[in-house]
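W.,

You were right to be curious about this one. When I first looked at the sequence I had no strong expectations either way, so I just let the prediction run and decided to look at it fresh. Below is the sequence, 281 residues in total, followed by the output.
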Amino acid sequence: MTTLTENSAAGIEDQRDIQQKLMIALDVDGTLVDHDGHMSAAVREAAQTVLAAGHDVMIATGRSLNATLPVIEQIGIDRGYAVCCNGGVTLRLDPELTDGYEIIHKATFDPGPALRALRRRLPSAKYALEDEDGNFLSTERFQDASFGVEAIGVDFQTMLEATAVRVVVFSAENTPEEFNEAIEHIGLAGVTYSVGWTAWLDIAAAGVTKASALESLRRRLGVEAACTVAIGDGRNDIEMLAWAGRGVAMGQAPEEVVAAADEVTKSVYDDGAAHVLRGLL
């Protein structure tokens, strides 16, 4: 494990040709923006500089599409690709498209079995679901900035009958430890899931992660595996950090995330992502 410093260029093939094009995957919350949703000027400028140098810079986030687009715009990425919903949705960005983007892949699943199992174990939790049309359905007036749209209140049966891209579960009445224990006890099958910083759970289709979506894009772009870089801080970044030729964990990342990475940078509050990005130039 390497700890990254401001002047460090530690990572894959330090002596590579400076013109080698990289594929750089950036998590959003806790990486590009802090937990108040603020992106520092240093991080924004570093991302823009790497983009201007001709590298493939792409967002890879658990956020849904409409919550991801403002970050893409803030950095100034108008061409290329982005991964949303923890790999459930992949976008192609092009200013000539009507909306500036198109969805090129969407992984859906039947949320019923997982929701029933969770409800039995966590009856007081709040549930939200992004359907195949991009709508958010929720119980208990559950709303979160990562949804990107106003959630529609529905009964639990309606959620069971929907086709999902993303399911979110949050429990304000359980400690993170109690929540984790409940999830482990349930043993969710047929889906991919990651537990957040608090009593928060994100669920996607089986086998779908940020890494699975990024690997498809890597092959599409013809980028060598050794020329991939990923930066992230959450448990939903573990597969992505392990996938990348150079996986960098943010300084505040939990131990299991750090263990999946090749190195650690500074925390989001110390512009850790900017330090890594500047080191790529």
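Here's what jumped out at me. The chain is about 30% helix and 25% strand. And, maybe more interesting for your project: The two ends are 22 Å apart (CA to CA).

Coffee later to discuss?

I.
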